[in-house]
Amino acid sequence: MNFDDFFDLCKQRRSVRKYTDKNISDEDINKIIEAGIQAPSGTNLQGWKFKILKNKEEINTAADVIEKKVLKVALSYNDGVLKDTLREYGKNFFFFKDAPLVIFLYAKKPNNFLPHFFKEELGICKGTGVFLSLGMVMQNMMLAAFSLGISSCPLTGPILAEEELNEVFIPPKKYEFCGLLSFGYTDENPKSPGRKDLEKFII
Predict the structure, then answer these.
(1) Long-range interactions of 108-117: CB distance < 8 A, separation 24+
(2) In a domain, 176, yes or no
(3) Using one digit for the tens of pLDDT, what is the confidence trace for 80-139?
(4) Is residue 117 part of a domain?
(5) What's 80's domain CATH number?
C-alpha cells in the first residue's frame, strides 16, 4: 500500500450510526479484531479484551441498560434545560440497537507502580498508557472494517453505565469497560464533517 491509498482510507472513513440488517460474517469479525490487536502498546502489555455481541437480544439489552442510566442521570438534575439536554444528547449513547455487531472494549487496569514512584510528575496522566493503546486498537479496527466495506462508530458515552453494564456483561477480572464499537453495513452516506487545515495544529 502506498501513502495515497492509506490516506484515502483514513480520509473516507466515517462514523456511521444507521445500518442495514445484513449480518457480518465471523471471518470478517476475526479480521477486524486481528487488525486491532496489531496496535502497539506500552511495554507490549497488550492489555485489552473484547466481548462480541451479535445476538439481537444482547445488543438490545446493552442499549436498554444505557438508556435507563441516561434517563436516571438526566432526572437527577433540577435544571430543566440540563435535564432535556442530557436526555437528547444521551441518545447518542445507545443508538446502536440496529447494529448487527457491537464489540465491548476492556482495558487492563493499570498497576500502581508508576503512580507510586512518580505521583507528582504523572499528574492527571497517570495510568493513561493502556487507554491510549486501546484507542489505537479501535482505530485499527475501524479502518480494517472500512476496508471490508463495513461501517463503524466508536462510543465512549456508554461508560456512563459501566457499573450497570458490568452487572449484565461480567468484565474480565482486572479489566475495566472503556467503551464500544458498533459495526454494520451502511444505510446512510454521511458527508465529511470537514477538517481544519494542517497549519491549525502545528505549534
Answers:
(1) 108/45, 108/47, 108/48, 108/49, 108/174, 108/175, 109/174, 109/175, 109/176
(2) yes
(3) 777 888 888 888 999 999 999 999 999 988 765 555 555 555 444 445 677 889 999 999
(4) yes
(5) 3.40.109.10
